Amino acid sequence: MRKLIGRFFIPVVAAAMLVFAVIHVVRAQQVPPKPPPPVEPARTPFGKTVAGAGIVEPANEASGTSAISVGSQVAGLVVRVPVKIGQEVRAGDLLVELDKRQAEAQLRVSQAQVAVALATERQTEDTFKRDLATSREAVSDQQRISDEEAWRLAQAQRQVAQASVQQAQTNLDLLDVKAPSDGTVLQINVRPGEYISVFGGQGLVLMGKTSPLHVRVDIDEHDVPRFRPGAAATASLRGTPGVSYPLAFVRVEPFVVPKKSLTGDNTERVDTRVLQVIYALEPQGQPIYVGQQMDVFIDADDAGATAQ
Question: Which of 58, 108, 144, 247 could form a disulfide with 233 if both were Cys (CB 3.0 to 4.6 A apart)?
Fold first, then answer.
C-alpha cells in the first residue's frame, strides 16, 4: 500500500507545481488596467473646437502682458512703501517714496536764488526809472543804457532762478512713485532701505486692473484658419475642469508671435507660433488669480461663429 501511494504522490505534486507555475506566468504577463487620472481633463462643450492655453492677466490695454510694472525715473533710496499686496489703488496714489532730503535742500536753494534775483531786479528797475526821471544833463545817455541793460539782465536772471525752482520741484515730485492708473497691487518688489537704479528697467510695483480679468489665449498657427473672432468660448481652471466660465471676446492681437508660455505637454514644440486672443472673464464664486492657466475652448462651427 505504501508503495502504491508513493508511486502516485510524486507525479501529483509535480503536476500541481506545474499548474502553479503556469498560472504565475500568465498573471505576470497580464497588463494591469491603467488607473484613472487624478483629475479628469477639461472637455469642450462644442462640436467643433479650437483649443488653446490661456493665462489670466489684468484688463489693461497692452501686448505681451497687461500687468503694469511701475518704475522710477530717478535713482534713490527707498524710505517708504505705503501700499500692500492686494490693495486697490487709484491713479495718482503713492506707491513708493524715495529719500527727498537732497531734493528738498536743492529746492530751498533755488527758492533763495529767486528771492535774490527779485531783489536785484527791483533795485536795477528803480535805478533805471530814476534815470528816466532825471534830466539828460544829470545822467548821460550811456549811463541810462547801462542801467537799462542791468535791469534787463536782472529780469533774465530772475526767470532763470524761477525755472530752477520748477526744475527742483519736478525732481522732488519724481521721488514719489505714483500709480499711473486705477488697479490692484499684484507684487511689491522693493522694501524700505533698498537703493533703486534707473538702469535695467527695475520694476518696483506690479499692478493692474483686475475687474474684469482678461484671459490671453495662445492659438496655434495651424488652428488660426478655423478661428472666428466673436465665437462662443469657455474656459476652465487647471485642476477644476468641471467648472467652466463663459468668455467675452475683447480683441485679437493681429501679430503671430513665438509661443512663450509652455503648458508642459510633451508634444509641444518651442518653435510654435501662436495668435494671441484676449477674452474678458468674470469670476463666479471661486477666486481666480492673475497668472493662473486656463484651458480654453472656442466654438469652431461656422454656423455658430459670428464675426465681429
Answer: 247
- Contact indicator for 98, 74 with CB cutoff of 8 Å: yes
Q: 175 exposed, middle or buried (CB, 10 Å; 0-12, 13-18, 19+)?
A: buried
Single out the residue of 210, 249, 254 nearest to residue 233, CA to CA: 249
Of the candidates 104, 151, 111, 106, the residue with the CA atom closest to the CA atom of residue 127: 151
**What pLDDT is attached to residue 285?**
74
Secondary structure class of 303 (helix, strand, coil): coil
11 cis-preceded (ω within 30 degrees of 0)? no
**Integer Cα distance of 279 and 52 in angstroms:** 12
CA angle 70, 75, 80 (to 5 degrees): 65
Angle formed at CA 29 by CA 24 and CA 30, multiple of 5 degrees: 100
288-to-56, 78, 81, 98, 245 alpha-carbon distances in Å: 8, 32, 26, 33, 11
Q: What is the pLDDT of residues 84-118, one digit of tens each?
A: 999 999 999 999 999 999 999 999 999 999 999 99
Cβ 57 vs Cβ 290: under 8 Å: yes
Report d(CA 242, CA 21) in Å as an integer.
47
**pLDDT tens, position by position, 175-197:** 999 999 999 999 999 999 999 98
Q: Which of 212, 223, 208 is nearest to 277 (CA)?
A: 223
